[in-house]
């Protein structure tokens, strides 16, 4: 690790410092970036510390939603009274991820920007198209239990590891960013990207653009939600498959459904057509299976992760059942009902 | 951690407040808080287990919040209040969690113990653990390779429940031992 260090005092200064230096990176919680620097995967020449910037507030928006500052720690967000009350799906997803120590340090913006946990990406001694474009992808024929079954490419089968982002995708959040060319707002589904031929790009940010806030629309779905995370141990492990599900009922009938999958693709996986299949239907396992099949259409395994296709299908059905019943998955007692 | 062939980063002056004492050190920007605590300030209670934020042995409190000190750049903690295991109690006056770990035999080799105790202090201050089940979940960032988890949970639960019940504060806890 060999870099110069600058502490930014304004958002504008921070952006200017990073935009003007291709080797510069923003650092906030550092829980992923410092780790990757120790592995020699990330080698920034300059770090711009943004932790003292005034991006730590959670504010009400004019249309009844919340705007979450990019530097709000994951733990503060999960335990914020407004989030617990109005966006319990988000609180649940955050608490399903990482450890308490990491959630205390990790920030809202940083959670979006965390990189894949693909073993080959993390090992600087082997090829990886995400780390070194054009070098190859050993994961496709290697140890790929944790890898993608949807939206992967010939160049990359990595997954995005976040739990929080799966809930944000389901809730229809937007991402506020600022860069050298000004500010813009990105719909959550357009923030992360599929790998295609350029897996080195995790998202659609330009160099020097900073996430300044994440905005949630006005709350809905009441208790008809769940975050169901399936993994190799009960706590403190990345998802093999996770499901953020939310349902709005009009009487007995589904009027709106949201389903986002984690651990299966390069970004949280949503298929509007699958969600639309549930509209106007009574909640039933038959209807849930139909939606799950549509959501997983085109899923492909790579050997060790073949099991994820059926696991995801069943997890979607279970999650939709939990959401419809208004009995969200509890994140301390991991018994799945 | 690998140092590459490029010229060394310029040292930076950092002021750390550790266990109430102010320390001014000149360190490379790449120095982690854990390495500065151990190698420069000789506070070796915080342990280096995995050095990757996975085991929790390096857990300290920064402005009262538990974090993995191996993933913190020391320079970014300039001016912050750091509490390590050395700041929690003294041999003749143990912190209630230290006393409970001894009473419950909540360790074998002891390597993870400073991190376990700092983490438990942070967790009880956070106030989201209401029983053994939540203690297990919220302490999952602290691994114990000896497998003393059963006794660790019992030790923490004893202090937690004593804190929660106003009539069962420290004096009664000691009397019960």
Automatic annotation (TrEMBL), chain B:
CDD domains reported in the protein's UniProt record: fer2
Keywords: 2Fe-2S, Iron, Iron-sulfur, Metal-binding, Oxidoreductase
GO molecular function: 2 iron, 2 sulfur cluster binding; metal ion binding; oxidoreductase activity, acting on the aldehyde or oxo group of donors
Database matches in PROSITE patterns: 2FE2S_FER_1, 2FE2S_FER_2
InterPro entries: 2Fe-2S-bd, 2Fe-2S-bd_dom_sf, 2Fe-2S_ferredoxin-like_sf, 2Fe-2S_ferredoxin-type, 2Fe2S_fd_BS, Aldehyde_Oxdr_Iron-Sulfur, Beta-grasp_dom_sf
Pfam families assigned to the protein according to its UniProt record, in alphabetical order: Fer2 (PF00111), Fer2_2 (PF01799)
2Fe-2S ferredoxin-type domain location: 12-88
Record protein name field: 2Fe-2S iron-sulfur cluster binding domain-containing protein
Originating species: Chenggangzhangella methanolivorans
């Amino acid at each position: 690790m060999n870099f110069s260090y600058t502490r930014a005092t304004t958002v504008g200064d921070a952006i200017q410092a990073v935009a003007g230096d291709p080797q510069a990176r923003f650092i906030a919680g550092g829980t992923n970036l410092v780790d990757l620097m120790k592995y020699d995967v990330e080698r920034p020449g300059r770090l711009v510390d943004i932790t003292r910037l005034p991006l730590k507030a959670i504010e009400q928006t004019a249309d009844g939603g919340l705007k979450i500052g990019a530097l709000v720690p994951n733990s503060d967000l999960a335990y914020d009274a407004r989030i617990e009350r109005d966006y319990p799906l988000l609180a649940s997803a955050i608490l399903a991820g990482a450890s308490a120590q990491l959630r205390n340090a990790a920030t809202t913006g940083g959670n979006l920007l965390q990189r894949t946990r693909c073993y080959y990406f993390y090992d600087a001694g082997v090829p990886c198209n995400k780390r070194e474009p054009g070098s190859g992808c050993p994961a496709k024929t290697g140890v790929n239990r944790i890898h993608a079954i949807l939206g992967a490419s010939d160049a990359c089968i990595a997954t995005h590891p976040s739990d929080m982002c799966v809930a944000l995708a389901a809730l229809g959040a937007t991402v506020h960013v600022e860069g050298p060319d000004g500010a813009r707002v990105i719909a959550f589904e357009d923030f992360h990207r599929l790998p295609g031929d350029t897996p080195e790009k995790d998202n659609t940010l330009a160099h020097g653009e900073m996430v300044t806030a994440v905005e949630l629309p006005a709350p809905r779905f009441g208790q008809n939600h769940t975050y169901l995370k399936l993994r190799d141990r009960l706590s403190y492990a990345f998802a093999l498959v996770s499901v953020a599900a939310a349902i709005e009922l009009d009487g007995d009938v589904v009027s709106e459904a949201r389903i986002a999958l984690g651990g299966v693709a390069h970004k949280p996986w949503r298929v509007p057509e699958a969600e639309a299949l549930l509209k106007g239907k009574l909640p039933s396992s038959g209807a849930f299976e139909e939606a799950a099949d549509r959501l997983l259409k085109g899923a492909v395994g790579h050997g060790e992760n073949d099991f994820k296709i059926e696991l995801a299908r069943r997890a979607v059905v279970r999650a939709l059942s939990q959401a419809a019943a208004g009995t969200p998955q509890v994140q301390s007692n991991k018994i799945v009902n | 951690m690998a140092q590459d062939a490029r010229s060394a980063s310029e040292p930076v002056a950092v002021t750390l407040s550790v266990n109430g004492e102010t320390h001014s050190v000149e360190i490379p920007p790449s120095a982690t808080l854990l390495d500065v605590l151990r190698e420069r300030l000789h506070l070796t209670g915080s342990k280096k287990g995995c050095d990757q934020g996975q085991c929790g042995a390096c857990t300290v409190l920064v402005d009262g919040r538990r974090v993995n000190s191996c993933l913190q750049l020391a320079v970014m903690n300039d001016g912050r209040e750091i509490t390590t295991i050395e700041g929690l109690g003294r041999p003749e006056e143990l912190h209630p969690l230290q006393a409970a770990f001894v009473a419950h035999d909540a360790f074998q080799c002891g390597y993870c113990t400073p991190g376990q105790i700092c983490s438990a202090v942070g967790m009880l201050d956070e106030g989201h653990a209401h029983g053994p089940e939540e203690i297990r979940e919220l302490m999952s960032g602290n691994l114990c390779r000896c497998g003393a988890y059963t006794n660790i949970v019992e030790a923490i639960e004893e202090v937690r429940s004593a804190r929660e019940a106003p009539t069962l504060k420290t004096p009664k806890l000691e009397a019960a031992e």
